[in-house]
Specification:
The complex is a heterodimer of chains A (about 375) and B (about 230).
Chain A (H helix, E strand, L loop, with lengths): L2 H11 L2 H32 L1 H6 L3 E4 L14 H8 L4 E15 L5 E9 L9 E5 L9 E5 L15 E4 L2 E10 L10 E5 H7 L9 E6 L5 H10 L3 E4 H14 L3 H30 L1 H10 L3 H37 L9 H28 L2 H6 L1
Parallel strand pairs in A: 3-8, 5-7
Antiparallel strand pairs in A: 1-9, 1-10, 2-3, 2-6, 2-9, 4-7, 5-8, 6-7
Chain B lengths: L2 E11 L4 E12 L4 E5 L6 H8 L7 E6 L2 E2 L5 H11 E4 L11 H11 L4 H14 L15 H13 L5 E5 L7 H15 L5 E6 L10 E6 L2 E7 L3
Parallel strand pairs in B: 3-8, 3-9, 6-7, 7-8
Antiparallel strand pairs in B: 1-2, 1-4, 4-5, 9-10
Helix pairs in contact in B: 3-4, 3-5, 4-5, 5-6
Classes of the chains: A alpha+beta (about 375), B alpha/beta (about 230).
Bound molecules: adenosine-5'-triphosphate and magnesium ion.
């Protein structure tokens, strides 16, 4: 830091009222923007939880599917056709649907049921209690221990229930990487049992999960599946499509974008105005500096340095406050869908940069306009 | 000769509606002089002072300072000229209220890109010269008006300029303080290597001048030798 920047810093720090208003203004703007974008990211991520949990490289589905909410069944012959495409390492069927569980207490609970391929168990959860092979037992289900686990009355191995009037028994408890958004508990079972016990249409496969032999095969596989009249998405394409769906085809995205913009504008105006008042207070003195021999560059350096300092401090406090708040909220509400990701941090940093540039721009413009002669005349 | 001004003209307003503030003024200043420019309000004193110190561009005429033609300099050269060769004392001082006195005094050296430590050390030294060493760490508003004036003087002389420019230096001071400050400047700051130009209304301090120029209506009407 050079001596000029030291002066700039002292001018800033010594005006405690404005200094804190600036920091707090930017901090709250960052806090709100972070909370908004973090909640948004959290919700969007959770909508793709099934794609993330099953972790297949590619998904084959009906061409009209545009989110994980849709599942349009696929006839069995497509699975065979897909398996015979060159470059397909393996392809397995997946059942994904909802079932109505009647708990031993007599209570009914809507539940997400995932039926995984009998021969490979591809996409199986990580077992934390029990043995995965027990899934082959009669009526076996594995309960997923996520934040909605308690809605099934926290079942243990051996707990029985009814699902769509068929008997079910918990044979293990598993864990998946990400809980879902919609607050329904999840049970895993075999694909064959799912289509036998749960209501299905004439066609039975919800999705075909496949891994290619090589990433180079992806485009050929896609082409071939298209010829069959179906669509293939890579994991990332499906996640993106799913995010787009919730962002643009539900009111969710628009609302969050508006709220984020509002916080940005509030931050911008609080910081911009306070900074402007700060510059105004010292305007004549800056004019005197000009008369004494300060160059444009010196004055711009001072103002920009001040704006940058408040920007970075405000940003730092804002990120800290939002991360703390989110962490605290998560301790209390396990279902709270909010994640501070690197992109959200970059995003709000970028908005702070705009706030800083705008504030220093109006300050610098004002200062470059004053005529030392007017200062001289008093 | 430190300064020479020839046929300076300055007008304000539009081409059709001009008010002439300075009308064909020529004069020169020698080293060792404490030159006063006096005259009624609106006679063009501040305008003239601004032209010869590189703050306001004249419409016509030339200014030579140390044999360099002032208004041929570009913006940055002009800023450097003011920074290194001229010391200003403004009528309302224009000290930063949020800096201490010594930090205010150090500003010209800081603008010269000297280090913070060096600038502040010099600041203490010059505050000592104006007799305010014990006030150095206070902000200006904790000082009396006369003391603030001396802080402003210390800031003007810290870069050891050849030419000091004062506009109405005693206007906000009572008579005794005004006299004390001017006699202090005359005895301690004026030297054979410097010149001081003072614009004033204040006839109580006229006798400290080495020469007095009287302005009226944008023109220099008379030049008197001052008396001590
Ligand atoms: N920026 C300006 N625009 C228009 N007219 C101006 C401007 N600056 C000065 N003038 C006019 O120029 C004339 C000289 O002004 P100047 O400030 O130089 O007078 P002065 O002798 O310093 O007066 P005072 O003793 O009141 O300070 C005045 O008539 C003033 O109104
Ligand atoms: Mg004047």
């Amino acid at each position: 830091m050079n001596a000029l920047q030291t002066v700039a810093l002292k001018l800033l720090f010594n005006d405690k009222g404005k200094f804190f208003t600036l920091i707090i203004g930017i901090m709250f703007a960052v806090l709100l923007m972070m909370l908004m974008t973090a909640t948004f990211t959290g919700i969007i991520q959770k909508t793709s939880s099934q794609i993330i949990n099953l972790n297949a490289d590619m998904w084959v589905m009906d061409p009209s599917v545009d989110s994980t909410r849709d599942n349009i069944p696929i006839p069995d012959y497509v699975l065979d056709a897909v398996r015979s495409i060159q470059g397909v390492k393996f392809a397995v069927p997946l059942y994904s649907g909802s079932g109505l569980v009647k708990l031993s207490s007599g209570r009914y609970q809507a539940t997400q049921i995932v039926g995984i391929d009998d021969s490979t168990l591809f996409g199986r959860p990580q077992i934390i209690d029990g043995n995965i092979n027990a899934i082959f037992n009669d009526d076996a289900f594995i309960a997923i221990k996520d934040s909605d686990f308690s809605k099934l009355d926290s079942p243990k191995n051996g707990t029985t229930f009814e699902v769509n009037d068929h008997r079910g028994i918990i044979v293990g408890t598993g864990k998946v990487s990400m809980g879902g958004l919609f607050g329904t508990p999840t049970l895993y079972t075999l694909y064959s049992r799912a289509i036998k016990d749960l209501p299905t249409t004439r066609f039975t496969i919800s999705y075909i999960l496949l891994n290619p032999k090589n990433t180079k095969d992806i485009s050929y596989i896609k082409q071939e599946v298209t010829k069959l009249g179906y669509k293939t998405w890579t994991r990332q394409e499906f996640i993106d499509a799913n995010s787009n769906y919730y962002m643009f085809k539900t009111g969710l995205g628009t609302n969050i974008v508006i709220m984020t913009l509002v916080s940005f504008i509030v931050g911008l105006s609080v910081a911009g105005q306070t900074f402007y008042a700060f510059v105004l207070e010292n305007l004549e003195k800056f004019g005197a500096l000009k008369a004494i021999g300060a160059k444009k560059r010196d004055l711009m350096e001072m103002i920009f340095f001040q704006a940058a300092i408040v920007g970075f401090l405000g940003y730092g406090f804002g990120v800290f406050a939002s991360s703390t708040l989110i962490a605290l909220a998560k301790l209390r509400l396990p279902n709270y869908a909010s994640v501070v990701t690197f992109p959200t941090m970059i995003f709000s940093f970028f908005l702070v940069l705009i706030i800083v540039s705008f504030s220093s721009y109006i300050g610098i413009r004002k200062i470059l306009k004053i005529e030392p002669f007017d200062i001289f005349r008093g | 000769m430190i300064l020479e001004a020839k046929n300076l003209v300055k007008w304000f307003g539009t081409e059709e509606n001009k008010t002439y503030a300075v009308k064909d003024v020529s004069f020169s200043v020698n080293y060792g002089e404490m030159l006063y420019i006096v005259g009624p309000s609106g006679s063009g004193k501040t305008t003239l002072l601004s032209i010869i110190s590189g703050i306001l561009r004249p419409n016509a005429g030339v200014v030579f300072v140390k044999d360099k033609e002032l208004w041929k300099l570009n913006d940055n050269e002009m800023a450097d000229f003011r920074l290194f060769s001229i010391g200003f004392v403004f009528q309302d001082f224009h000290l930063f209220p949020r800096l201490t006195s010594v930090e205010n005094v150090a500003i010209p050296l800081i603008l010269q890109k000297k280090s913070w430590e060096e600038s502040i050390a010099a600041g203490y030294k010059y505050l000592e010269i104006v007799g305010l060493k014990d006030r150095a760490d206070l902000p200006p508003h904790k000082l009396s008006i006369g003391e603030q004036q001396r802080v402003a003087i210390a800031r003007a002389i810290i870069s050891e300029p050849d030419l000091l420019i004062f506009d109405e230096p005693t206007a906000s001071l009572d008579g005794d303080t005004g006299k004390k400050i001017i006699s202090f400047v005359r005895d301690n700051i004026l030297s054979a290597k410097k010149a001081i130009i003072i614009v004033t209304h204040d006839n109580r301090i006229y006798n400290y001048a080495t020469r007095i120029l009287r302005m009226e209506d944008g023109k220099i009407m008379a030049s008197n030798k001052g008396e001590f």
